[in-house]
Structure formats: C-alpha cells, structure tokens
Amino acid sequence: MECDRCGREAVMHAAYSGAHLCGDHVRAAVEKRVRRRIREDGLLPADASPESPQTWVIGLSGGKDSVVLTHVLEETFGRDPRVELVALSIHEGIEGYRDESLDACRTLTDGRDLRHEVVSYADELGVRMDDVVEKDPENMAACAYCGVFRRDLLETYADELGADKLLTGHNLDDEAQTALMNFFQGDLQQIAKHFDASLGSFDRRTESTHFVPRAKPLRDVPEKEVALYAHLADLPAHITECPHASEAYRGEIRELLLSVEEEHPGTRHSIMAGYEELAELAARRYRDDGTEDLNECERCGSSTGGRICRKCRLVESIEAV
Ligand code: SF4
Ligand SMILES: [Zn+2]
Ligand SMILES: [Zn+2]
Known about the structure:
Elements: E1 12-14, E2 19-21, H1 23-40, E3 54-59, H2 64-77, E4 83-91, H3 98-110, E5 115-120, H4 121-125, H5 129-135, H6 142-160, E6 165-167, H7 172-184, H8 188-199, E7 214-215, H9 223-232, H10 248-263, H11 267-286, E8 295-296, E9 303-304, H12 310-319
Parallel strand pairs: 3-4, 3-6, 4-5, 6-7
Antiparallel strand pairs: 1-2, 8-9
The chain binds iron/sulfur cluster and zinc ion (2 copies).
C-alpha cells in the first residue's frame, strides 16, 4: 500500500479514517493532533509572554505515552519563550522496573536539555511499592495504593515547581476506557469531575482552586499510533509492564473496546465525542464552584475533605504492619 499523501510505502492503515500513511506522515499526523488539541483546549493563554511564561510540568514515566508527549511538546515549545517545560518522574520503588524506565527518561531529557526532576515514594513517603504489595494492610490491589501516592506526589511537586498546568500522556484508548468505566459504573458525579479535572477545554471547565489544572494533549491519538510514533522517532521508551499491574477491570474494558473497534472502526472517537458533551452537561449539573471546602491534611498539608488525607492514612496503615 502507498501513503495517501506522498506515495511512499505506507507503514500504517488507520481503519477509522481509511488513511494509509508512511512513517513521516504518521509522525506528522500525530504531531498535528497534539498541537490541535493544545490549541482547542486553550492550554496556552493569550497573555503568556517571555516575561510571564507558563510552566508546564509533564508527568514522565518513561513509558511510550509520556515519552512521546514529552518529545512532541519539546519539539513544539522547546524554543518558545512563553512556555517552560519541566519533566517530573515518580519512582515507586518497584525492583527491576522503575530503574529501567527512569533510564529511558534520563536519555530522553538529557538529549534535549530539558529540566527533569525525580521524586520517590521512599524519600517522600518512606514506603516502596514492593513492600506495600507484601504488607497490603488494606487488602487492596497494588494500583489502588500506588494511584493515591502518585496523584499526591505529582500534585505536590507540580505545585512546588510552580506549574500552571500538569500534563499527562493519556491516549485515546485510555480516555475511552475511562469513559466506558464511568458509564458502566453509572457514576455521573465521576463523569462531571472528569470534565473539570482534565477533559474539558480550559474556557469551559471550572478549575478547582486546590489543584493544579491537568490536561492530556495526546487524548486524540490511538494507543497503537503512539507506540508506532515512539518507534519511528526512535524514542527511548520503556515497554515492560509493571509487575504489580492489577487494574483488572480496566483490562477487561480494554479488551472489549479493542474488539468493538475492530468490528466498528471509529468507536473510540465516537465514544469520546459523545462523552465529552455528556460530561459537560454532568459537570453543569453536579459541579460546585471550584472552591469546595477542603481542609489541609494535619500531617502533610495536602487538600482533603477530612482531617487526614487518604495518602497519609494509607502510609500510616502500611507502617503499622
Ligand atoms: S501498574 Fe499499578 S503498581 Fe505498577 S506503577 Fe502503575 S499504578 Fe503503580
Ligand atoms: Zn507519506
Ligand atoms: Zn496527608
């Protein structure tokens, strides 16, 4: 098959659009969608200037998604004085997994003269995921602990680094899975929160005063194309899966979605188009004004609805074992 754009040999056929593309045009198409998403979501405010630049902190795990996101952002904004990019990696303390992916992060950022910060569960919380899995005081899946810790550290450090936005590498498949999971769980409040937390464009969401606003510039790009981009651009992405990966429900939804997409190309895109509209309606119905009454955690100062935040309660119960 030939590339629709230039006639060279195609390396990809996108069933949802009918396009056949060569390597160069796959890369161009991915970059175009990321830039369009950044524009449409209003990530770069009109008043950003060299004197008053935006700081964008990128959650960089070393996996293909965050590596591609970091690369495209650096290519696009690396020399733009209105934007300062900082990559932030979290070390969970998972033997034989995170060290290698951090090597990938360092190779990527060193080669690009990009500021890169690493924070670890061990230094910040006094726990390592390998030990958490062994102790498991709450009888929960590894990712349930890990997700709470990661969110907290990303938030804390994004704030400390002066972030205006926190950008993560979620792709189209991730977002369509989350949409379906929220539907299947019948959780409209969660859908409303999703809109304001990261889904809606910045002019349509109500931002919380307690958290750094998030965005997902890769969310229009299917997972397979992100992987192909990483390969074509020869990026140092780490592909091994975490040995504690345990999001069983998401795994089922992923399989389901891939099989429906196979039979009905374009399903992920149409799910997201409808979901975003629905999420905005849900947000209008359920959102508060973004200044909800949150307290400072008595232990760590993070925002929480109670006296002590969930992260601190989990750390405490791990330490008690
Ligand atoms: S797969 Fe789960 S345990 Fe492993 S790093 Fe991700 S969230 Fe943490
Ligand atoms: Zn081409
Ligand atoms: Zn706390």
